[in-house]
Recover the amino acids of this structure.
């Protein structure tokens, strides 16, 4: 059985020492979140994830979800009890407004708990995760009545939520959407259509499910600007809030898929279901997009979460598994063999995962804090800057944390050798579960196009310029000897990113294919620079703690791991730059039939 | 359902135009293999793989193997009939000596058919693959009586074979082996012990299974130099060749694993089983190693095979799936959307796979031909050179073709978006199946250590020097304008490999950890140079054919795909060099407890 321990110390180091969360005390909810309270809250979350949720992950994968002939779906054994504990602990609404029953703590706390939960069981974490996404959408776009009707029940965990976009003919290109909505005399709509790949579409964890459904109102314009968002409850609530009649929405089947077997991925059939408009007519895509930035950050966190738990297991196995001898001679001559952690190549795999996880978590928290500023600050300038940051970094985080999270799950599995391929150790499940994160909420190629095609040019490149200015400013003010081994390589990598940006400006305007051909490499290059910057920030904080007399193995390890990142991971920027500068030529030359 | 078409034209281009197989006509079996005969034979193989085997792959994964309470194992529906067709077609012994019922064709033909078969169904292909490995071992190390007793039945496909090495406490480090052999008065041995991860250990495809079992003779020295190889038949043959008594070997259970569900991976219990010495006492590892080079080449071919079939499906999907519009404006304005192959980033994924597959196949055939020289040439000099080549290239091929084969299966799955995660399209099966190739027959980290620690220094570096001399010689004689875009980048990459080699010579003697820390990157760097060289050879042959008036889309595509490789894949060599030169420092600094 896999192990898991939530990275509490790491998280508190980032919050308190690297990002100095106290500086955000002017925002609502932050002053309440003192270091002591944060530690207490996160310790509780850690306990729930480690003791209640994590033990369900492996058996939940094996058992999977079961659809009965009446269309109901059973989740794996234990999921109900765990979901109840999660809800009763108040975790669903930890960052939600107090007026709807939430705790009002920073959204950053939800992000952190989301990481712990997804490490413990990604399949399980998706149920609350999707509900929190639906809560955010209703908070942002719902009427006062809708908020009052849905939010308290959802925050209590009595009702859960979903997001219904995809149809068989329509994935990335939502303009191809066919699900129909017809306005009724009472102001509601009749919804008809089929949605696929609906996570948590039907299950037995809650008494009601609130579907957010993208559909096309009869007579609406074709394409993406003719889509509207609807609330379609599985059971229609009565005026007094109690449950009324069953609505015309059914789970037609559960998809057989590679992983996340504990989460029910449903084909949902809407058969004259009653839906309620949320947000504006024909502006459904805008409502989706406000949710999507957060959902994408959440998916990035899933990638990180799997990478973290996979690392912990691989490290434990490498310390325990006796096989062969160190290249420099037996380290444990009294044992039949040395533990495989003596081997540089095993350490290469472990350090690669670790150097990524620590910086990836920093990148997530840095950005989550900006999310809080966006939603809670009263300072317009600060809000704009934070929103710019979110917009720019979200596709980067989504793609690199999931690409690398998956790659790291594969590396961690490799540390186990043949045993990694066997189900009982759980390593192969991490690989199968992590795989979907590169695909859903916009496949990573779409993230790259979003970054290059939309986020870079937005507002005359304001967000990118602010990012460059911050990193350059940091490099200028941190050139001392202790920081040189870190800021030196970061400067080189930033130079590559700037060259790549310049190349895009020169070559992609007239030939958009050059932007498309460069997009994935540009995103990876951007991600490496962002991670490198996080490493500098962490090393700086670690050096300060060490200088202040904190004799800490963990702070020493930060300096070494940061060096590993600079020496062995950051140099990839040069390859990305070379690929970008190669242009679209050899990609676009062959006719489609030649493939 | 996935599609598959064996790459017949590609293979014949490599055999006839690139490697000019006619030049090997002095070797036994080659003169018979005229271009016409080769085409006929390979067309037959293609037909069998496409029509009989491939349709079993997806259902076979779903059904898996079933162990009954008596220890017998049922393979998925259809495997028996397909195996019979394979055997009756003479494919098992296509390269085996005529005196035992084989066809005597080059072993290269077996390698090619092995690729087709593993593309069609890797799980199925493992049954004949392991049998061919056992045939090779008995041919090389068996007595005349053993050959007569086993080979004809195995070549006929009536009996199959396995390889029994791994035990729970003993994977890479075979010196930890515990399975015991005790000599009996009649010269046979009693074998006792437990073996795990035994592919095709028990099944219903053959009337007998010939297990090759590594064990330790009572009183043998500890460690790897006390291990001996035994033939342990599931059913003991009588003197007349007919089947006699059941031997003391049983399948204890089938492993639940990530993929290759159609192949039975067994725990094998040896309970006073009767075994027969093969090869010399306490030299079992030598016998294993002669098999292993070929087995490792075969596993590399599996990686390539999955990459090929994954590519074919991804390319077909990209041509068909309508979603979004080209960045340069609608290409098919009459359709609701353009096929996704219009997108540069989709092409990036497809071209990456394709550029790898074509060069990977070349690398395999180049090396397989050297294998034929090793085994069949009468010229000692030629044999030594070919053996050097095999020894040097085998770990490289095993590791890069499986690392990249897996990565390519993931890329191909990505082209499918969400549909790639759903079982029915078969793309996720390719990922799960390919994953094991990076692990078995020596995990890829072990291949890297074999290359750097054993193959480079062997015979004063003779093999490496020969490789360098060949590539350098080629670069010198192919500097014309048409070849410049190819030999230029190859020259740079070769320079990186030479710098890396120099760095190893300078830094790894005194500090072996520097070799271990560099090994995986050195192997990848080596692989890129070898693939780059293959691209030059292919481009040269394509240019010659085009110059000779062969107006061929396929030859034009070679020039474009080769350019893609040079521009976008080969530049990775610089990152590998940087990592190698970083040394072992940041890897080895942390204490084991810090992980």
């Amino acid at each position: 059985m896999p192990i898991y321990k939530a990275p509490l110390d790491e998280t508190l180091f980032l919050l308190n020492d690297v990002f100095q969360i106290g500086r955000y005390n002017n925002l609502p909810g932050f002053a309440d979140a003192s270091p002591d309270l944060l530690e207490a809250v996160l310790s509780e979350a850690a306990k729930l994830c480690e003791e209640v949720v994590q033990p369900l992950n492996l058996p939940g994968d094996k058992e999977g979800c079961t659809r009965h002939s009446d269309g109901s779906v059973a989740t794996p054994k234990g999921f109900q009890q765990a979901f109840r504990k999660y809800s009763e602990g108040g975790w669903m609404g930890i960052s939600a407004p107090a007026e709807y029953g939430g705790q009002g703590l920073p959204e950053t706390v939800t992000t952190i708990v989301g990481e712990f939960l997804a490490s413990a069981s990604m399949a399980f974490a998706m149920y609350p995760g999707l509900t929190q996404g639906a809560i955010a959408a209703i908070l942002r776009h719902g009427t006062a009545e809708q908020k009052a009707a849905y939010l308290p029940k959802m925050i209590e965990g009595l009702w859960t939520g979903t997001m219904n976009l995809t149809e068989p003919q329509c994935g990335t290109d939502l303009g191809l959407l066919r699900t129909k909505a017809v306005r009724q005399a009472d102001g509601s709509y009749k919804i008809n259509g089929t949605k696929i790949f609906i996570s948590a579409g039907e299950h037995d964890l809650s008494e009601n499910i609130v579907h957010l459904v993208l559909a096309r109102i009869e007579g609406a314009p074709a394409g993406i600007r003719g889509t509207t968002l609807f609330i379609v409850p599985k059971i229609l609530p009565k005026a007094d809030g109690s449950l009324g009649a069953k609505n015309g929405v059914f789970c037609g089947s559960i998809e057989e898929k590679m992983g996340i077997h504990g989460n029910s991925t449903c084909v949902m059939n809407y058969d004259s279901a009653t839906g309620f408009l949320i947000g504006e007519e024909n502006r459904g895509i805008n409502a989706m997009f406000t949710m999507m930035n957060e959902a994408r950050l959440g998916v990035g966190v899933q990638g990180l979460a799997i990478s973290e738990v996979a690392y912990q297991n691989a490290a434990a196995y490498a310390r325990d598994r006796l096989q062969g001898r160190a290249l420099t001679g037996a380290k444990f001559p009294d044992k039949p063999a040395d533990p495989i952690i003596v081997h540089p190549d095993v350490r290469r795999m472990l350090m690669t995962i670790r150097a990524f996880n620590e910086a990836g978590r920093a990148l997530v928290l840095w950005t989550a804090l900006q999310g809080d500023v966006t939603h809670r600050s009263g300072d317009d300038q600060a809000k704009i800057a934070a929103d710019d940051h979110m917009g720019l970094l979200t596709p980067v985080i989504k793609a690199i944390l999931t690409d690398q999270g998956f790659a790291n799950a594969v590396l961690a599995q490799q540390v186990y050798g043949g045993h990694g391929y066997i189900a009982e150790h759980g390593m192969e499940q991490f690989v199968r579960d992590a795989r979907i994160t590169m695909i859903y909420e916009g496949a990573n190629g779409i993230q790259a196009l979003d970054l290059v095609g939309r986020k870079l040019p937005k507002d005359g490149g304001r967000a990118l310029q602010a990012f460059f200015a911050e990193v350059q400013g940091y490099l200028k003010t941190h050139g001392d000897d202790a920081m040189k081994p870190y800021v030196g390589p970061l400067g080189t990598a930033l130079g590559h990113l700037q060259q790549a940006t310049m190349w895009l400006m020169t070559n992609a305007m007239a030939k958009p294919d050059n932007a498309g051909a460069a997009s994935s490499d540009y995103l990876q290059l951007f991600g490496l620079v962002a991670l490198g910057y996080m490493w500098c920030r962490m090393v700086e904080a670690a050096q300060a703690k060490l200088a202040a007399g904190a004799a800490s193995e963990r702070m020493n390890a930060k300096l070494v791991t940061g060096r590993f990142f600079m020496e062995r991971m950051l140099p990839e920027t040069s390859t990305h730059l070379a690929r970008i500068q190669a242009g679209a030529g050899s990609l676009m030359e062959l006719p489609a039939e030649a493939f």
